[in-house]
Amino acid sequence: MPLARTVSGYSVTISTVKGGYRFQIEMLKNITLATNSIYMHY
């Protein structure tokens, strides 16, 4: 039982980390787009 609980917790951690990376990548894309548009504006 403890093993199964550990495995499920591990998979949850992995999915959370993946989601975090995806979120950071989207943030970087948005920041890059915003920066580009600002530079284009000037």
Which range best describes the helical content: under 10%, 10-25%, 25-40%, 40-55%, 55-70% or over 70%? over 70%
Strand percentage lies at under 5%
Low-confidence stretches: none
Query: What is the overall number of helices?
Result: 1
Largest β sheet strand count, sense and barrel closure: none
DSSP E strands, number: 0
Backbone structural class: mainly alpha
Number of domains: 1
What overall form do the CA principal axes indicate?
rod-shaped
SSE order, as H and E? H
Topology:
Elements: H1 2-41
Task: Produce a short descriptive summary.
The protein is mainly α and 42 residues long.
Which key terms come to mind for this protein?
0% strand; mainly alpha; 42 residues
What can you tell me about this protein's structure?
With 42 residues, the chain is mostly helical. It has one domain (1-42). The protein is built from one helix and no strands. The mean pLDDT is 79.
